[in-house]
Specification:
The protein is mainly alpha-helical. Helices cover 86% and strands 0% of the residues. It is rod-shaped.
């Protein structure tokens, strides 16, 4: 195998490792966002059950706005 081929393969391996790290980071961010949404939704349900539906609706709107700000533009 020539040095050029070895260099190309090495570069491709490095690019794959970098892509894998980015994918893992994005997956963690998505999991964190889902956890935050689940917690806020649970709190909203408790507020609705306690008789505060407007407060719950406001809380969910704020959370949705926050999640939309964090989401990449191609997800909207």
């Amino acid at each position: 195998m020539s040095e050029k081929q070895k260099r190309i393969i090495n570069d491709q391996n490095e690019a794959l490792k970098k892509a894998h790290r980015a994918l893992a980071e994005n997956g963690q961010k998505a999991a964190d966002s889902l956890r935050a949404f689940a917690e806020a939704a649970s709190e909203a349900v408790n507020k609705i059950e306690a008789g505060y539906p407007h407060c719950a609706a406001r809380q969910l709107r704020e959370l949705i706005n926050d999640l939309n700000k964090e989401a990449p533009n191609d997800c909207h």
